[in-house]
Design brief:
The complex is a heterodimer. By secondary structure, chain A is an alpha/beta fold. Chain A has helices at residues 37-53, 68-77, 93-107, 126-134, 151-155, 202-209, 218-221, 249-259, and strands spanning 2-6, 9-11, 18-19, 26-27, 33-35, 56-63, 81-86, 111-115, 137-142, 160-163, 166-173, 176-183, 186-190, 213-216. In chain A, a hairpin with a 2-residue loop joins strand 10 and strand 11. Chain B is α/β, with parallel strands linked by helices. At the A-B interface, helix 6 of A face loops of B.
Chain lengths: 264, 218
């Protein structure tokens, strides 16, 4: 079985994002970049599936030269090889989906697993668009039967299972879980509770440096990267205003009623 | 604790534990295992330690496969002069010495690897001659058997294979291993043995990788 997974390079979610004073773009100088956590979950799930069924895991990322670091991280987790679409352009989800569709044409995977969204733009579109372009079945928000992951939990039925040529996906939906069976090949996107991605270790980091990482360009794939979505403006959430200390409940109710007008 | 090292010997003593590779429990090695702090080290940690990637600190799939093959087929090396190319911690060379080779030379570009190979040889009561430097292309006139356990990773792999095939044509017994990483064409090679080699790839260490021991076709 061949599984294609994505590993997007995103701004570090633990650091504050800076916005240019005119609100036109994010300031990326001095920013730390990490792998999209939902994509790490995708890589982990692909590794578990190929361990159970045999096969190959291929990591794809589209981004600047440095995005190779995130692919190498996927390789250090245990994936077999990488494909790096080199571009310095900002890509929207549609461009990513069209790029992935071309890579799928070439690689012919049985399964494409993507993070449900990236933690930088939270778009949550690439997986669904890809399934649309390919005409494949899709299982979005793959989750797990139960939340906590200990050794016993790992031994339980996983969120993704391949049986009789179909992939069974446990999906996180409003108010519970839903299990669906998809014909393969299929597109799956991962939710937070699907698994806990493994840590990388030194022997695997060293091994990852020697694994194959092919560089490709949008031109060679024949994909036009011009965005269909235009980013108009970035703005920070409004700053919190200072609080007031009131001397009695009556004053509080009076202020809420007459000044803030939040109660009648 | 500081990462800064003193001498290679002290570094190896400090950063490794004496352990055994799954395929070759007969052989003791100084290895970095999950109990060592280097196990979780990043590139940045290695930089702080001024340490090149410590390939000598792990028993890779190819080395384990060749060592297992030699321990099972000592006639391949008994009484013969053996050259261990890209020796790392020397697992293949030690196996050759245990199997009765008349002498074994371990060659590696990394000087620390040669220290590790020598210390590992001591652990197993055998002796390895040490040879530093890049010897790819050398006719290796004084040797009869050439081992290449983990030599085919990266762009230089095809050139190394060409050299090894030339040595085989010149009459040397060449044993090489490949874990199917795709850096060399194995079509012109004769498969001697296949092992399911445990790797360090997954968290529970149970992922096996099929690893072949080959010799170039005559």
């Amino acid at each position: 079985m061949k599984i294609l997974v994505t590993m997007k390079r995103v701004t570090d979610y633990e650091r504050k994002v800076k916005i240019a004073p005119d609100g036109s773009h994010l300031i990326t100088e001095g920013m730390n970049f990490v792998a999209n956590p939902f994509d790490e979950i995708a890589v982990e799930e692909a590794l578990r599936l190929t361990k159970a069924h045999g096969g190959e895991v291929v990591v794809f990322s589209a981004g600047p030269k440095d995005a190779a670091q995130q692919i190498r991280q996927g390789l250090a987790m245990g994936a077999d090889r990488g494909i790096h679409l080199l571009t310095d352009k900002e890509l929207d989800s549609d461009a990513v989906a069209r790029l992935l569709a071309k890579v799928v044409d070439q690689e012919k995977p049985d399964l494409v697993i993507l993070g449900k969204q990236a933690t930088d733009d939270d778009a949550n579109q690439a997986g669904q668009l890809l399934a649309g372009y390919l005409g494949w079945a899709q299982g979005t928000f793959a989750s797990k039967h139960e939340g906590l992951e200990g050794p016993e939990e790992k031994a339980q039925k996983p969120g993704l299972a391949i049986e009789g040529g179909k992939v069974h996906v446990v999906r996180e939906v409003d108010g519970g879980l839903e299990t669906i069976a998809l014909d393969m090949p299929a597109v799956v996107t991962t939710d937070l509770r699907l698994n806990h991605p493994r840590f990388t270790t030194l022997p695997n980091i060293m091994k990852a440096k020697k694994k194959k990482l092919d560089e490709v360009t949008a031109e060679s794939l024949g994909v036009d990267l011009s965005p269909k979505v235009k980013m108009l403006r970035f703005s920070e959430p409004p700053a919190r205003t200072a609080g007031q200390i009131v001397d009695s409940v009556d004053t509080l109710i009076h202020k809420l009623k007459n000044e803030r007008k939040v109660i009648a | 604790m500081s990462w800064v090292s003193t001498s290679p010997l002290q570094l190896i003593e400090r950063e490794t534990v004496v352990s055994r590779a799954p395929l070759c429990p007969e052989i003791q090695l100084h290895l970095v295992t999950h109990t060592c702090r280097l196990w979780r080290a990043t590139d940045r940690d290695l930089e702080a330690l001024e340490l090149a990637d410590p390939f000598w600190a792990f028993a890779w799939a190819g080395g384990q496969a060749i060592a297992r093959y030699l321990l099972d087929h000592p006639e391949e090396v008994r009484g013969r002069k053996v050259f261990d190319f890209a020796a790392g911690g020397g697992i293949q060379g030690i196996a050759a010495a245990l199997a009765g080779a008349s002498c074994v030379a371990a060659n590696d570009l990394d000087p620390i690897a040669l220290h590790a190979a020598s210390m590992n040889a001591d652990l197993n009561g055998v002796h390895l001659d040490l040879a530093g430097g890049d010897l790819v292309g050398d006719p290796l006139a004084e040797f009869e058997v050439v081992l290449a356990g983990d030599a085919f990773y990266g762009s230089e792999a095809p050139a190394v294979l060409k050299w090894l095939c030339r040595l085989a044509k010149a009459g040397k017994r060449v044993l090489l291993a490949d874990a199917g990483r795709g850096f060399i064409e194995t079509e012109g090679l004769l498969g001697l043995a296949q092992f399911e080699t445990p790797t360090d790839e997954d968290s529970d260490g149970t992922r096996l990788r099929p690893t072949w021991v080959y010799t170039p076709n005559p």
